[in-house]
């Protein structure tokens, strides 16, 4: 079972989803859990089925002390690159917390200081610490719901299934139909041998 990183400090965990996608936003979440929060199922969202993530989402929202979720648009990703967009998303999700954390734990190995709050980057932190796992579940479920919504606008890319990731089917649709306003133009959308007219 996952644990807290600091037991004596008010701790926010933060994570993002959709970094490796060709379309759609990168979505970040930050969560401060109550001190006595326990959940047997909660772990890194990638290890959970869609059903379990959807089951956990309202539990986290109801039982967290506070949480924030934000989407960073493809335009912003193209402008500042995906790493900076991911960090910006985490900062913006932290800004949405109505209680200021005393410590921030971040999934991964890259972050920029947020206000004057000390932080720690933890590789695979979403599989080790509850607040990061909770943030990973919220980021993933909110992003998936967004992709399912924009799927209705452009069903030929099947985003409700591939969520914008570079599947064979998604790349074949890009080759056939070109790109949409939701595609990240700074990403290599097709392999080198298939050139795309932008």
Automatic annotation (TrEMBL):
- Does the record carry Hydrolase as a key word? yes
Grouped into one coarse class, the protein's main location is cytoplasm
Q: Which UniProt keywords apply?
A: Cytoplasm, Endonuclease, Hydrolase, Manganese, Metal-binding, Nuclease
Q: Which EC numbers does the record give?
A: 3.1.26.4
Which cofactors are reported in the record for this sequence?
A: Mn(2+); Mg(2+)
Keyword Cytoplasm in annotation: yes
**What catalytic activity is recorded?**
Endonucleolytic cleavage to 5'-phosphomonoester
Q: Which Gene3D superfamilies match?
A: Ribonuclease H-like superfamily/Ribonuclease H (3.30.420.10)
- RNase H type-2 domain span: 9-198
SUPFAM superfamilies cross-referenced by the UniProt entry: Ribonuclease H-like
- Cellular component GO terms, alphabetical: cytoplasm; ribonuclease H2 complex
The residues listed in the UniProt record as binding a divalent metal cation, with positions renumbered to this chain, are: 15-16, 107
Coiled coil (UniProt feature): none
> Which terms does the UniProt entry file under GO BP?
DNA replication, removal of RNA primer; mismatch repair
Q: How is the cofactor bound?
A: Manganese or magnesium. Binds 1 divalent metal ion per monomer in the absence of substrate. May bind a second metal ion after substrate binding.
Q: What compartments host this protein?
A: Cytoplasm
In Gene Ontology terms, what is one molecular function of this protein?
A: RNA-DNA hybrid ribonuclease activity
What functional role does this protein have?
A: Endonuclease that specifically degrades the RNA of RNA-DNA hybrids.
User: According to its UniProt record, which protein family does this protein belong to?
Assistant: Belongs to the RNase HII family.
User: Which protein are we looking at?
Assistant: Ribonuclease HII
């Amino acid at each position: 079972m996952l644990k807290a990183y600091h037991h004596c400090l008010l701790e926010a965990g933060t994570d993002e989803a959709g970094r490796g996608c060709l379309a759609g936003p990168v979505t970040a979440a930050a969560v401060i859990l109550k001190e006595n929060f326990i959940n047997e199922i909660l772990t890194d969202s990638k290890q959970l089925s869609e059903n379990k993530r959807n089951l956990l989402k309202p539990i986290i929202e109801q039982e967290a002390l506070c949480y924030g979720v934000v989407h960073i648009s493809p335009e912003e990703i193209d402008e500042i690159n995906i790493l900076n967009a991911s960090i910006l998303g985490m900062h913006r999700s932290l800004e949405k917390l109505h209680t200021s954390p005393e410590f921030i734990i971040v999934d991964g190995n890259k972050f920029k200081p947020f206000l004057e709050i000390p932080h720690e980057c933890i590789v695979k932190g979403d599989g080790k610490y509850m607040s990061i796992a909770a943030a990973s579940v919220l980021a993933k479920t909110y992003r998936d719901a967004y992709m399912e919504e924009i799927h209705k606008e452009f069903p030929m890319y099947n985003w409700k299934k591939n969520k914008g990731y570079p599947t064979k089917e998604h790349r074949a649709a890009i080759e056939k139909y070109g790109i949409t306003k939701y595609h990240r133009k700074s990403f290599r959308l097709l392999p080198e041998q298939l050139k795309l007219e932008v």
